[in-house]
């Protein structure tokens, strides 16, 4: 069916001799992870990605399927337009941050296995700073900041959510948790195929989102938080942040760069263009006759070294 798949064929003039191994790869969109796994189990598909700990429960003991856990999880957060009402009010942003029970979100969406995020950088990367802590779950503080923000009870906050199941789960939990702190949240679903384009074009304001890590911090922190970053979908603009990011990308000395990126992440906690949620636990799954799959940091599957038994 037209529009249901993308077929890419082997490039016989590929620069690396002998690769790729496969003659073609047929990318297909599935309506849900469970559908993809059912088709994988029957041999109709060879690979299914972006699987959560909850998704893989039915197949964990299936010897016909191989599971690959991603080494560095995607960073999930809540974001908003910091230049646009009502989220241009930093006290409202802090109220929301304190109202979020990230541990509960991890328990529901990731079976309790994900790492709670204090910023965009997970433990284990050289630019991680263990001294940086995000906002604690504290409904009392959330209510105090609501008073400072001048929030009027009943004022509607619109939360846009992709129809992908993980975003729907997060949005429903956020709606519930903000209600407990006295905030009214209405969820507006956005079709999964349209959601990302609308986010980067700044057509949706308050929304959960996710990003993968890059081999170097400049690859993510610059594009998201520099005022000229092409993926800066929050409209965040802080000259001090720009200066730090510019300085950090101007040297390869890690001893110089690390404190610069620490300062970057401290400012993000103060200015709060995003509420850090967690670093996901994710899996890719293949049939047992598929070989050569490996994860890399950006979690975009590469298939050039993948091969199948005949």
Strand content: 15-25%
In CATH, the architecture of the largest domain is Roll
CATH class of the largest domain: Alpha Beta
What is the number of helices?
10
Rg, alpha carbons: 21 Å
Q: Could you state the order of secondary-structure elements as H and E? A: EEHEHEEHHEHEHEHEHHHEEEE
Low-confidence stretches: none
Order of strands across the main sheet = 6-10-5-9
Choose one word for the global shape: globular
Task: Walk me through the structure.
The chain has 310 residues and is of the alpha+beta class. It folds into two domains: 5-70 and 282-308, 3-Layer(aba) Sandwich (D-Maltodextrin-Binding Protein, domain 2); 75-212 and 273-279, Dipeptide-binding Protein, domain 3, CATH 3.10.105.10. The chain is 33% helix and 20% strand. The protein is built from ten helices and 13 strands. The strands form five sheets. Strands 6-10-5-9 form a four-stranded antiparallel sheet. Strands 3-11-4 form a three-stranded antiparallel sheet. α6 links the parallel β7 and β8. α4 (102-109) packs antiparallel against α6 (165-180) and α8 (218-225) packs antiparallel against α9 (239-248). The longest helix is centred in the C-terminal third of the chain and has 18 residues, at 254-271. The radius of gyration is 21 Å and the shape is globular. The model has no long low-confidence stretch (mean pLDDT 94).
């Amino acid at each position: 069916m037209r529009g249901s798949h993308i077929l890419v064929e082997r490039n016989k003039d590929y620069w690396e001799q002998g690769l790729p191994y496969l003659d073609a790869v047929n990318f297909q969109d599935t309506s849900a992870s469970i559908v993809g796994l059912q088709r994988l189990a029957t041999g109709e598909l060879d690979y299914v990605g972006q699987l959560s700990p909850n998704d893989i429960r039915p197949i964990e003991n299936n010897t016909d399927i191989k599971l690959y856990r991603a080494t560095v999880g995607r960073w999930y957060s809540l974001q908003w337009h910091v230049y646009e009402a009502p989220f241009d009010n930093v006290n409202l942003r802090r109220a929301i941050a304190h109202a979020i029970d990230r541990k509960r979100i991890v328990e529901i969406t990731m079976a309790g296995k994900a790492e709670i995020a204090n910023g965009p950088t997970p433990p284990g990367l050289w630019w991680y700073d263990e001294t940086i802590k995000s906002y604690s779950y504290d409904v009392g503080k959330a209510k105090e900041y609501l008073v400072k923000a001048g929030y009027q009870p009943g004022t509607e906050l619109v939360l846009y959510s992709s129809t992908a199941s993980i975003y729907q789960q997060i949005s429903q939990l956020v709606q519930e948790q903000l209600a407990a702190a006295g905030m009214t949240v209405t969820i507006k679903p956005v079709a999964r195929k349209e959601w990302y384009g609308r986010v980067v074009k700044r057509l949706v304001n308050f929304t959960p989102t996710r990003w993968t890590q890059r081999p170097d911090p400049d690859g993510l922190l610059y594009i998201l938080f520099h005022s000229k970053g092409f993926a800066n979908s929050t409209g965040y603009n802080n000259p001090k942040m720009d200066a730090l990011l510019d300085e950090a990308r101007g040297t390869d000395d890690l001893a110089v760069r690390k404190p610069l990126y620490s300062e970057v992440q401290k400012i993000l906690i103060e200015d709060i263009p995003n509420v850090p949620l967690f670093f996901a636990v994710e899996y890719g799954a293949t049939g047992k006759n598929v070989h050569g799959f490996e994860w890399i940091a950006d979690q975009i599957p590469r298939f050039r070294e993948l091969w199948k038994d005949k």
